[in-house]
Each structure stands twice: as structure tokens, then as C-alpha cells.
């Protein structure tokens, strides 16, 4: 029997793109699924658009006032009936084989509980911008997660059993970086992987949270990376140290500060001892700059 998948989507004033996002899920070749959409207090035509979609696999939850994307997602997780939970943001698009490909991988690899994929980045009008590559092996995902969020939220599928407890849900505030925080809390409990194929289209536009709140997201990613280094490897580093190392990886041609070089060497050495061979600096720098024309 095919695995039953709950696809979770949250939307706030997303009338421009929510219909396309929903249609991309309801058109999946894997038919055994439900689409749970939480309308997070939208004030535009979102509710009307959702009411116009008649597929019985769509279930809508309406919140009278906005709680934020991660609090809204937790409401959907309370209702989800699937064995697997997939995420898709309301401004992104799933390729038609996305769910089938991920279900097949998870059925073939029972040790993996957290699965992402590559993505195609698109502009506001849907035209292609570039390709987003991701680390694909468990070891590389664990290493790159020490440096930042390396799994694309809209691409992730998780075994529902990993999300049963309240402490295994999204932290609800602030409304950015909750996905990265959750992945770091799931990694001690399961293996991770990603399919290299671009199974989702990730929209880059001025209205997205990642654009509107980029500075806050970067600050929180740095703080989560520092915490994760400490918890995983016992590495004491400041936010400034971690931010400098992340900047060096993004612009490897620049001359690093001595503290960045020491942190990199310490990070790599401890990871090799406790987890496995880390990627080289050059390979990590490629993964830290994931967009390919």
C-alpha cells in the first residue's frame, strides 16, 4: 500500500501564488495524499481562492488572526494524518514527481527520516533564475548544518513519527529560521539525505519573509549554528566568529581572519573524530554558495 502523505502549507495574504502552489500538490503523480493549508489570518482574497478549490484532498484551517508561519504549521501538524509530512510554502511550486520521488526514497531507506531535495529558483513571474544545489549525504548535511540551513524548507519530507511530541515541533517565534532550528533538533534522532534533483521551484520575490527579514534571518542562522556547534562538537565560538566563518565560505577568495581559520580547522577536526570525514573547504564553499546558473 502506498504511503499516505500530509503536505503542510501555511499562507498569509498569499492570493498571488497560493492557487498555483495548491494545484502543484493536487497534481502529484503520488495520489495518496492530503493537503493541509492553514490560512493564517489572511486579509486578501486567499480564503476565497481556497474555497474555489474543490479537490476533497484539500483541507483548510482558518485562523482569525495571524499567528506566524511556524505557529500555523504546528496547527496543521496537529491535524495531519499522514505517515510522512511534506512541506511546501504557499509561494513555491512542487514538480509533479516530487512526492513520488521522495516517498520511493524513504521506502527504500528506512534509516532516513529527514529528506530534502534540490530546487529551481524562480522569479516572481515564474521564470527560471538558477538552480539550487544541496548536500545530499547524511555526513555532508550534518557538517553543513553546523554552518547554516542547508535544507530547503519547501523541499523537505519528514517521517511523521519524528514530529509527534510537542518539543519536536517548530518553535513558533520569531517567524524566521524555524526550519533550520527544527532540522538541528531532528538530526540527533535520525539520518538525513537529499535528492539532488530540483523537485521544487523556490520563488524569489520581494514579498517573501526570507527577503523582507533577511538581516534577522542571517542573525538567527548564525546563533543557531553557534548553538549547534556547541551541542554537537563541544565547540565554543562567538556569534561574531561564526558569522566571519560563514562570510569566508561565501567569499572564499578573500583572506580569512586568523580566528576564522582556527575555527574552521577545529570544526573539521572535531567533526572527523565524532562523525566522519568532513567536506574539504573548497567543497564546503561550493555548498555554501548553492546557486548555479
Mind explaining what this structure looks like?
The protein has 293 residues and is α/β, with parallel strands linked by helices. The protein is 39% helix and 21% strand. The chain has 11 helices and 10 strands. The protein has helices at residues 18-26, 46-51, 69-79, 98-108, 138-144, 178-186, 209-212, 214-233, 239-250, 258-274, 281-288; strands spanning 5-11, 33-40, 58-63, 84-87, 93-94, 112-122, 128-132, 157-159, 191-203, 291-292. Strands 1, 2, 3, 4, 5, 6, 7, 8, 9 and 10 form a 10-stranded mixed β-sheet that branches. The radius of gyration is 19 Å and the shape is globular. The termini are far apart.
Secondary-structure class: alpha/beta
Summarize the helix and strand pattern as letters: EHEHEHEEHEEHEHEHHHHHE
Beta content comes to 15-25%
The tally of helices reads 11
**How many extended strands?**
10
Largest sheet: 10 strands, mixed
Query: Mean pLDDT, nearest integer?
Result: 93
Uncertain regions: pLDDT < 50 for 5+ in a row?
none
The end-to-end distance, rounded to whole angstroms, is: 40 Å
**Oligomeric assembly:** single chain
Q: Roughly what percent helix?
A: 25-40%
Radius of gyration: 19 Å
Q: Please state the overall shape, judged from the principal axes of the Cα atoms.
A: globular
